[in-house]
């Protein structure tokens, strides 16, 4: 089965289509909660909730060609819900040997760089933010998969990404 339509119809008629959907979009769905910097456990919860929502709403999907976009939006909503309910917790690994732990100066420098990067990213338009998050957290995705997830033309993914990265670099240089 190739197209989303065939896979969805196969699943609805009792054929094995679910595994094909999960295999096709697993990395994309997983990349969304990771782009929100959720813990592994929280990202796994979002991942599972996204697939559960799809199972619950599968019969209502009218445009199978937009399934990737639907999955990204659902995972995004789930991730935001997790952030709101659990907040940004920083868990300390008490089993980590002290010798490998970064120094306070290293932590402060890293945190400042990350703060600047994320602050600059949030000043970009939503399309650039989503594109760069997917590119950062799922570099193995093809341009076709990224285009499908973002509702873009395949031919515009590379040039749009280049423009977004250039804009991000300019903003970071302005903040120095």
Automatic annotation (TrEMBL):
**What does the similarity note say?**
Belongs to the sigma-70 factor family. ECF subfamily.
Where's the RNA polymerase sigma-70 region domain? Answer: 21-88
Tell me which Pfam families the record gives.
Answer: Sigma70_r2
Source species of the chain: Lentzea rhizosphaerae
Name listed for the protein in its UniProt record: RNA polymerase sigma factor
Keywords, ordered alphabetically = DNA-binding, Sigma factor, Transcription, Transcription regulation
Query: Which InterPro entries does the record associate with it?
Result: RNA_pol_sigma-70-like, RNA_pol_sigma-70_dom, RNA_pol_sigma70_r2, RNA_pol_sigma_r2, RNA_pol_sigma_r3/r4-like, WH-like_DNA-bd_sf
């Amino acid at each position: 089965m190739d197209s989303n339509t065939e896979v969805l119809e196969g699943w609805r008629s009792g054929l094995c289509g679910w595994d094909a959907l999960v295999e096709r979009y697993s990395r994309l769905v997983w990349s969304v909660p990771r782009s929100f910097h959720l813990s592994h456990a929280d990202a796994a919860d979002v991942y599972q909730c996204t697939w559960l929502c799809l199972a619950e709403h599968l019969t209502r999907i009218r445009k199978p060609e937009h399934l990737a976009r639907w999955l990204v939006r659902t995972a995004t909503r789930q991730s935001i819900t997790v952030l709101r309910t659990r907040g940004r917790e920083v868990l300390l690994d008490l089993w980590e040997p002290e010798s490998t732990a970064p120094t306070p100066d290293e932590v402060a420098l890293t945190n400042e760089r990350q703060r600047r990067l994320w602050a600059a990213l949030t000043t970009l338009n939503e399309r650039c933010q989503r594109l760069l998050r997917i590119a950062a957290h799922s570099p193995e995705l093809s341009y076709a998969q990224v285009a499908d997830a973002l509702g873009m033309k395949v031919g515009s993914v590379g040039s749009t990404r280049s423009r977004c990265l250039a804009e991000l670099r300019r903003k970071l240089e302005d903040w120095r």
